[in-house]
């Protein structure tokens, strides 16, 4: 049976610049506990400004169940509900909601790179950045999932999220560990061409000159998460 990497990005904070570590801990603990019983490896992979991304390595037949459980947990612990309330069972009523990206796993361990963006006044140009990352992955033959869409996206087990969702997520699955540094370097280098975009550590708040966008890049490896910021910084010495 095919397996997939599913990433769900959401703002459940009560502010626009950072997340609550205690809430993150509660969400992560319950998601891991409930999904592990189904044989699904899941965790918070990215924390970018006021957004978190929950990433799962999940069999095709459990995608709907995976998403439903994550949505339940988010509603249980959320301090801010705007993104959650943007979800609708009616496609035409879906508003700014979750960011949803899915890509087929080509590794038995579910290895992938997850890139998450957060905006502060950069809503008008952030989609271009995410689509650029998507294009890099596809150009080099990787399977890519991207949350950017011109129309509402159906999230199995949850409902529809609107096209105006503005903190995109990109998932790129890889076959070999050696693909990680090559792909991460290409993404980092390519994104340098964008003005008002800042590469930050996983977990960083929005500490920029607005308007602008921040992004994090992590490796999701067999359910474990590695922040790629430190490795890229040491290699490139920026």
Radius of gyration (CA) equals 16 Å
Q: What is the average per-residue confidence, as pLDDT, rounded to a whole number?
A: 96
Main sheet characteristics: 6 strands, mixed
Number of helices: 6
Per the principal axes of the C-alpha atoms, what is the gross shape?
globular
Intertermini distance: 43 Å
H/E element sequence: EHEEHHEEHEEEEHEEEH
Low-confidence stretches: none
Family: To M.thermoautotrophicum MTH564.
InterPro entries: UCP005278 (IPR012021)
Verbal overview:
To M.thermoautotrophicum MTH564. InterPro entries: UCP005278. There is one protein chain. The protein has 238 residues and is α+β, with helices and mostly antiparallel strands. It has one domain (3-236). Helix content is 30%, strand content 30%. The protein has helices spanning 21-36, 63-77, 82-85, 126-139, 179-191, 228-236; strands spanning 3-10, 41-48, 51-59, 99-104, 112-120, 143-146, 153-155, 159-161, 169-173, 197-199, 212-221, 224-227. Strands 5, 6, 9, 10, 11 and 12 form a 6-stranded mixed beta sheet that branches. A 4-stranded antiparallel beta sheet has the order 2-3-1-4, covered by helices on one side. A two-stranded antiparallel ribbon has the order 7-8. A hairpin with a 2-residue loop joins strand 11 and strand 12 (224-227). It is globular and about 45 Å long. The termini are far apart.
